[in-house]
Each structure stands twice: as structure tokens, then as C-alpha cells.
Design goal:
Helix content: 40-55%
Number of domains: 3
CATH class of the largest domain: Alpha Beta
Radius of gyration: 20 Å
Number of strands: 8
CATH topology of the largest domain: Rossmann fold
Bound molecules: iron/sulfur cluster
Strand content: 5-15%
Oligomer: single chain
CATH architecture of the largest domain: 3-Layer(aba) Sandwich
Structural class: alpha/beta
Strand order of the largest sheet: 2-1-3-4
Order of helices and strands: HHHHHHHEEHEHEHEHEHHEHEH
């Protein structure tokens, strides 16, 4: 495994410290941000390692591509900063490990990778996904989830195995449904110099190109978007979502907690049992959604959907997954 591409000198001489001054969870001013980031650059303990909500936002905020979150995740682990108690840590380590060799049921063709979510399988249907096979499960799981718990070594240790397993599909192309999987192959692999020997595409790029060839009925809806944490690693894909919305006649209503100020759905804090953080995040986010004037809340991450859908409904809004919204636009729903 290669080393993280991180340049401490960039942080020691930074002119912005925006990786921390823009963080909406921690509220650091320039001087305090500088002080803490210098410690992190030097590999020393910083209170930010404890306070961090693991929203990955700083990866997006750093204008210099210096991987501030991955750096923090490395230090959280090497300096023993606990983001989860020992018992849950052991259980989590086991939960997504694999036994035995991965033998694909089908080799060759087109695949949609749906991460670990069995419920997404029924969404891969209709004209949008004609001719695609679905792949999911622990053998092809990217393990990026461990970044929320100060366990980045698990992602690194399992990376080669995951990539080799997916390579066995001999696919013509793999559409990655979950942002987190795409972030692994795009952001994480690039940050650690890992080669990915197959073609992969983000769901939004796939959907946009597919919709351009189809008859689309503008939906005329006002929506708010729940931008998930992993999308912070791959912010270019958020622009593709805007293009999809434009194509299918959707207005993405401006609100406080979207785009660079997106809030985590709170799912990581269910497992780490930090109910205080969970409540604060969800309350701010749901009130903001409810006050936006939108009728729908659009999700891409299945985990955000599972975590927030019922609470969104309780606010009088309709939760919907992006790909289902696209199916509406081609008259399938
Ligand atoms: S991570 Fe980026 S923005 Fe933050 S201090 Fe380093 S160079 Fe500056
Ligand atoms: S990961 Fe999120 S909460 Fe943590 S320092 Fe970066 S922006 Fe702030």
C-alpha cells in the first residue's frame, strides 16, 4: 500500500486554512484553525481529531488538494483517538469482513454496483437500467464506512482484495450507485496511488447520459437535496446532479444546509451511540428542509434515506431517491 499523498509544507504555509474555517460543525476562526492544522501537519495530537464529525467536508474545502481528512483519519488511528468504543469497534471489524473466495455468478457485461444495500436491488429496473446485472456484498465492499470510526487501516488493508474481486467480473463498465463506492475508486485510490484496473462511472454521470437519449417529461417539482458525506470526496459529481435536475425540470431549492454546507444525516452516530450529535444534526437539517418551500427531499445515499426518510415524512415532505425521480421523468412512476 502506497503512502498518502499529503504535503505538510502546504499546511504549514497555508494562506486560507479553509479546511477548518469552512467546517460548519466546529466553528474555527483563522488563527485557531492555523494552530490546529499545524499540529496535524506535524503529526501531533490536535483536539480537532476528537471533535471531528467525520463529515469529510474538509476534503472539499482544501483548495490545494492536500487531503486534510485522510490525514486526520491516519492520525486518529495512530494516536489512538477513539471514535467508537472497543466492543463496537471489534464488532464492526468483523461485520464487513469476508470468508472464502469471491466467485462471480456472471462474468462480462454491464453491472450496477449497489454496495451493501439489498433494498436498492429493486430500484435497478426499467428503461434506465436495461441490460444491467446487479452486484453487491461484502466481497466487493469498499469499506469506506470505517473512515467514520478512526479505522482507516481497514480501508487500506482490504483495498487490494476489493479491487481484485471487482476485476473478476470482467465488466464492460461498472456503474457505482453509492457515492461512497465511487469515492473509494476516485478519491481514496488517487490519494494513495492505488491503480484501478477497470472502468467505473458515477451513477449521476450514467443517469445524465442515459436520460439525454430518452424522452423526458419535465417534472416541475421544487426539491431540496440531502447531500451525503461521501460526496465531499467527489464534489465534481454534484454538478452533474444539477445537470440532471435541469434536464428533468427540477428546481433544487437553495437552503442553508446544502452544497458546501451540507449536513451529515447522522447515521455514523447511531453506531457510535452519540445521540447528542445525532439529534442536533437532524433537527437543524430537518427544520431547514421544512422551511425551504420544497415538496420533496431527494437522496442519493441509501443510508441517508434509511436514516431520514420517516422524519422527512413527519415534516410533511416526500422523500425520494434520485434514480426513482429519474424514472418519474421518463413516465415509469
Ligand atoms: S489542508 Fe489544505 S486548506 Fe487546510 S491547511 Fe492544509 S493546505 Fe491549507
Ligand atoms: S471532516 Fe467535517 S467535521 Fe471533521 S474537520 Fe473536516 S469538515 Fe470538520
Amino acid at each position: 500500500m502506497s503512502e498518502l499523498k499529503f504535503n505538510p509544507d502546504l499546511c504549514l504555509n497555508c494562506s486560507t486554512y479553509s479546511c477548518l474555517t469552512k467546517c460548519i460543525n466546529l466553528n474555527y476562526d483563522f488563527e485557531s484553525a492555523r494552530e490546529e492544522r499545524v499540529k496535524i501537519a506535524l503529526g501531533e495530537y490536535s483536539k480537532v481529531l476528537e471533535e471531528c464529525y467525520t463529515c469529510y467536508g474538509c476534503e472539499e474545502y482544501c483548495e490545494f488538494g492536500n487531503h486534510p481528512f485522510y490525514r486526520m483519519a491516519e492520525l486518529q488511528e495512530s494516536l489512538g483517538v477513539k471514535k467508537i468504543d472497543d466492543e463496537n469497534r471489534r464488532a464492526l471489524l468483523q461485520r464487513y469482513d469476508v470468508e472464502g473466495e469471491f466467485i462471480p455468478k456472471k462474468v462480462g457485461g454491464k453491472f450496477v454496483h449497489i454496495c451493501l444495500f439489498p433494498e436498492v436491488k429493486e430500484l435497478i429496473r426499467g428503461g434506465l437500467f436495461e441490460g444491467f446485472e446487479v452486484i453487491r456484498g461484502r466481497h466487493v465492499f469498499c469499506n469506506m464506512l470505517y473512515l467514520h470510526y478512526g479505522m482507516i487501516s481497514v480501508v487500506k488493508d482490504r483495498a487490494e482484495r476489493t479491487i481484485k474481486n471487482l476485476q473478476k467480473l470482467g465488466a464492460d463498465g461498472i456503474v457505482l450507485y453509492h457515492d461512497e463506492c465511487y469515492a473509494f475508486y476516485k478519491s481514496f485510490a488517487e490519494a494513495y496511488g492505488i491503480k484501478v484496473p477497470f472502468k467505473f462511472v458515477h451513477l449521476f454521470d450514467y443517469l445524465y447520459n442515459r436520460l439525454k437519449d430518452m424522452e423526458v417529461k419535465p417534472l416541475g417539482l421544487k426539491v431540496v437535496y440531502q447531500r451525503n458525506c461521501s460526496n465531499r470526496f467527489i464534489p465534481e459529481t454534484d454538478k452533474t446532479l444539477d445537470k440532471i435536475f435541469e434536464l428533468i425540470g427540477i428546481e433544487r431549492v437553495d437552503r442553508e444546509y446544502d452544497r458546501e454546507r451540507a449536513l451529515c444525516c447522522g447515521a455514523p452516530f447511531v453506531l457510535s451511540k452519540e445521540s447528542g450529535k445525532l439529534e442536533v444534526l437532524q433537527k437543524k437539517n430537518l427544520n431547514d428542509m421544512a422551511n425551504s418551500g420544497a415538496t420533496h427531499v431527494v437522496f442519493n445515499c441509501p443510508m441517508c434515506y434509511t436514516t431520514l426518510a420517516e422524519r422527512v415524512k413527519a415534516k410533511g415532505l416526500t422523500p425520494i431517491i434520485v434514480s426513482e425521480l429519474c424514472r418519474m421523468a421518463i413516465g415509469e412512476l
